[in-house]
Amino acid sequence: MKVLVIGLGGVTNGGKTTLAEKLKNMLPNCDIISQDDFFKPESEVETDERGFKLYDVLDALYMDEMVTSIRNWMKNPASSGVVTEEPQKTCDNLKNVYILIVEGFLLYNYEPLNKLWNRRYFLTLPYEECKRRRSTRVYQPADTPGYFDGHVWPMYLKYKNELEENASMQVDYLDGTKSQEELLSHVYSDIIKELKKLRE
């Protein structure tokens, strides 16, 4: 049995979840873990001097639990309830290969996770487009006025800069303004190449 762990990280509202779901439907033995499932309750998330809840930082997440969940999946992917039928016939001989897509906004700035990836993708968006998309979404708790400019976007830039400064980190940057079809096609063909390598 072999496992392939794919990171799908990047900007808020960049299309990570949609892309992950579409890939899951196209790939054999594929499962998703979402970082959003590891947020601490609101009462445990720090508030800054402006009254902003600091959700876009690692401290707002149970990162150790997330690492444990991924490691547990890697040890026994077949027990995760993953569908073992092959949705498409592109992948004969891959019955013993399991794929995990981990999607979230802060995947590559936490050292224990960086030992686990086979491939890392990072979705980017320009400021205006990201702000426009974010304004159409409803969050619990809701974004307060100025939250995007005061917290969300600066934290995205901070973590993205950290990533770019880490020369040892192999990351494939994806333009989130491209069509979902284009992004899907790019990532899907990459994963198929990785699967073929595993099979050799």
TrEMBL record:
| Gene Ontology cellular component list | cytosol
PANTHER family in the cross-refs: URIDINE KINASE
> Which terms does the UniProt entry file under GO BP?
NAD+ metabolic process; pyridine nucleotide biosynthetic process
User: What reaction gets catalysed by this protein?
Assistant: beta-nicotinamide D-riboside + ATP = beta-nicotinamide D-ribonucleotide + ADP + H(+); beta-D-ribosylnicotinate + ATP = nicotinate beta-D-ribonucleotide + ADP + H(+)
Name the domain of life this protein comes from.
Eukaryota
What UniProt keywords are attached to this protein's entry? Answer: ATP-binding, Kinase, Magnesium, Metal-binding, Nucleotide-binding, Pyridine nucleotide biosynthesis, Transferase
Pathway where it operates: Cofactor biosynthesis; NAD(+) biosynthesis
What high-level taxonomic lineage is stated for the organism?
Answer: Eukaryota, Metazoa, Chordata, Craniata, Vertebrata
Question: What InterPro entries does the annotation carry?
Answer: P-loop_NTPase
Specify the species: Pycnonotus jocosus (Red-whiskered bulbul)
Name the Gene Ontology molecular function terms of this record.
ATP binding; metal ion binding; nicotinate riboside kinase activity; ribosylnicotinamide kinase activity
Identification of the protein by name: NRK1 kinase
The Swiss-Prot or TrEMBL record describes its family as follows:
Belongs to the uridine kinase family. NRK subfamily.
- Record carries keyword Oxidoreductase: no
Q: Keyword Chloroplast on this protein? A: no
- Give a Pfam family name: AAA_18
